Amino acid sequence: MRPLRFLVPGTTGRYRCGGLLVEQQTARLLADLVPTELVTYRQREEGLPFLNDLLRAEPLGAAAANQALWIVSWGFDVPRQLRALRGRPAAYHAHSSGYGFRLPPGVPVLAVSRNTLGYWGQWASRNPLFLVPNALGASWIANGNRPHNRPPHNPGGRTIDVLVQRRKCSAYVLERLVPALRALGLRVEVQDGWVEDLMGLFNSATVVLYDSADHWRCSGVSEGFGLPPVEALACGCVLFSSFNHALADTLDPGGLAHQIGAGTLAADVARITAAVADPAAWLPPLRQLEELLEELSEPRLRERWRQALIAINAHLDRLQAGEPPLRAPSLARLRLERWRQRLGKRLPAGLARRLA
Questions:
Q1: Three-state SS for 163?
Q2: Quick one: pLDDT band at residue 335, thresholds 50, 70, 90?
Q3: Dihedral of alpha carbons 208, 192, 112, 2, sign
């Protein structure tokens, strides 16, 4: 199989985020299958190759330029990256959807959620499509404070009644729900900024609130996967969440999670208070949770990628041999054909044939 090059803008400072961690984790896991490296394209960093340097050193037509499979992923940068890589093997590791660009024919899509897969199944229906959900780190599965897991490193127990992460959280939760819960004497922590021991924080919380619907509706793109809710579940927390976009891939109301914003503020306060008082009654079924964690484990992700890469390499071999990629018809063409079909039913047969 072709070596892999994962394109990221940088790995430090403002580029340090969930999307970067996913790309780094994926590159680390796939290094067991094929030679894999991170390549930066905005920020030069010691020890990492830089995109423009590689493109100059490997001009099109050179043997080296045709060996690596480039993986692009960074939202609004994807069209520019694909233009820079034109003529080279490339695939799109699709997180969020809704950025508005269209993919060139033949570019494979590796979707991190069924929600994203469905989006590209609509807008790139003739491109090769694959489902590779993000993986939960092995340490979360091994050391999460689930009732049957009992990790030894959490001697203090659950010292936080309700945990909220400020980033992506709705104004409703921060400005109305949190004050209402604190007024009842609950220990509510609003986490802000980078946390080195995020697992320790989740392991110390009884209830976690995750409400990202307003954030993504305002952004105009989708919740690509939603790893924090899965991390909360792995740590044995009762989860109250929104169910927008890819969150509905893994969460179901009243099953693995409970709806936040369920009709009225009073209803939310009553249910969260009850969950803090008796978390066992609100936790998801053990078997359902463990099946989810197994499906999102690192070995499962590696196997999904292995199968996808075999298919992608075969696809690229066919393209390089000269076989043209399939092209989905344009939206304008589809609408014109539908108009002709509808109009044809009302026209004399001869005129309908001429329009067709």
A1: strand
A2: confident
A3: negative
